[in-house]
Amino acid sequence: MPEAYIVSARRTAAGRRNGRLAGWHPADLGAAVLNALVAESGVDPAAIDDVIIGCVSQVGEQTFALGRNVVLASQLPDSVPAVTIDRQCGSSQQALHFAAQAVMSGTQDLVIAGGVESMSRVPMGSPLTLARAAGLGEGPFARSIQDRYGVPEFSQFVGAQMIADKYGFDREAMDRFALNSHLKAAAATQAGAFTAEIVPLEVVTPDGPMIHDRDEGVRANSTLESIGSVKLLTETGSLSAATASQIADGASGALVASAKAVKDHGLTPIARIVNLTVTAGDPVIMLEEPIPATRRALARAGLKLDDIDLFEVNEAFASIPMAWLRALDADPARLNVNGGAIALGHPLGATGTKLMATLIHALHARGGRYGLQTMCEGGGIANATIIERL
Fold first, then answer.
1. pLDDT tens across 113-144, in order?
2. How far apart are CA 280 and CA 31, in angstroms?
3. How much is the average pLDDT of 309-318?
4. What is the pLDDT of residue 287?
5. Is residue 351 within 8 Å of 316, Cβ to Cβ?
6. Quick one: 60 exposed, middle or buried, by C-beta within 10 A (0-12, 13-18, 19+)?
7. CB 3.0–4.6 Å: which of 199, 318, 340, 341 could bond 243 by disulfide?
8. What angle (nearest 5°) sits at the alpha carbon of residue 326, between those of residues 322 and 329?
9. What is the DSSP letter of 232?
10. Residue 89 appears among annotated catalytic residues
């Protein structure tokens, strides 16, 4: 089977809700990443066959073919097509899968996969709340679905707490996991671990213009006491906002190339796609699916968990990567080594290729060979991607 290579992977530094990136239109955020990918690779932008952009809240500034608008806002010629996809939190990871599949099928040679989400300008859940306020329809969960699963709706918050209860994670354990996420992210930032992957952006703050090149949500001074003081999400639960991913603005992307494109354009691959897997399961507990997705990806790749040098498991809530570690008996020292979404933010549709950029650069920095990325997604779906550093 033909190979698919990643020749560039970049992301913006995450902006906090109503923070430094709130002044950036989502199309412009995505365009900045596209421009950086093309500039870093040196490829002729007119040679890009397609652009696939993930986005979750496709309404307002993020609707009307956001992917196409990202291209039109960029330095790419308008001859480059684009499409927008939604696989919830895994949208841009799935965009990467589609890009790799297009290359591996031989139908395309150069495809950009990426994602954009401005959670300041288009708040999470806007497609639901705006439609409900306008009196449009009954919502996404048909009566047949409600009857089948015995619930009026599916909630990630409920699912995350169900997982915490199932695995016996108390508040202190999850608070400690969140603290470690901040401490790892702060140390990585201080050491310049993210410098090569971040696309610097000009922003205007109350103190004047500045360059936004550091993730805004990292709290280097976090303590177990400060995290433990945050109010619980529910009175009877054990998760708080401090043990959930941060609402964030951002964009990310990766340029995927065929062997032919690598040769024809003189490109230097930084990673090879080893396996692309997507699975689905129980939509009620919802967020546990990265566990079977990881098992299937490893089996299809003919690898063992011990063969993988670094893991990126999205920190939607602390209970998710904690359950993944427990169920797979994985080495916590290889997990989210530069912190995760609890500290670095989770700009929904952008997080998939954001994590991939971090994973590839971390593998290069540490001399690892294989990396695995997996993401829990709405509806009980999960993507898993295995790459090899080149």
1. 999 999 999 999 999 999 999 999 999 999 99
2. 32
3. 98
4. 98
5. no
6. middle
7. 318
8. 130
9. B
10. yes
Catalytic residue among 97, 182, 212, 346: 346
Q: Where are the alpha helices (DSSP H) in the chain?
A: 26-41, 66-73, 91-105, 126-133, 143-149, 156-167, 171-191, 224-228, 259-265, 290-301, 319-328, 341-344, 351-366
Q: How far is CA 289 from CA 66, 124, 294, 302, 332, in A?
A: 28, 22, 9, 20, 19
Amino acid of residue 99: A
Q: Is the pLDDT of residue 225 over 90?
A: yes
CB-CB contact of 286 with 211 (8 Å): no
What's the mean per-residue pLDDT of the chain?
Answer: 97
> Beta strand 110-118 with 50-54: parallel, antiparallel or unpaired?
parallel
* Residue in this structure with the two tokens 């690892």, named with its chain if needed: 368
Distances in Å between the alpha carbon of 95 and those of 54, 72, 87, 89, 349? Answer: 6, 19, 9, 11, 10
Place of tokens 């990292």: 218
State the Cα–Cα distance between residues 211 and 214, nearest whole angstrom. 9
Q: Which residues pair with 8 in a beta bridge?
A: 255
Task: Kindly report the number of other CB atoms within 10 A of residue 44's CB atom.
Answer: 11
First to last CA, the chain: 18
Structure tokens at 224: 């177990």
Residues 354/194, Cβ–Cβ less than 8 Å: no
Find the catalytic residue in 55, 89, 212, 361.
89
Give yes or no for a contact between 257 and 109, defined as CB atoms under 8 angstroms apart. yes
Annotated active-site residue 55? The verdict is no
Question: Which of these is catalytic: 55, 182, 212, 376?
Answer: 376
| Cβ-Cβ contacts under 8 Å for 293 (sequence gap 6 or more) | 277, 278, 279, 374, 382, 383, 384
Beta bridge partners of 240: 232
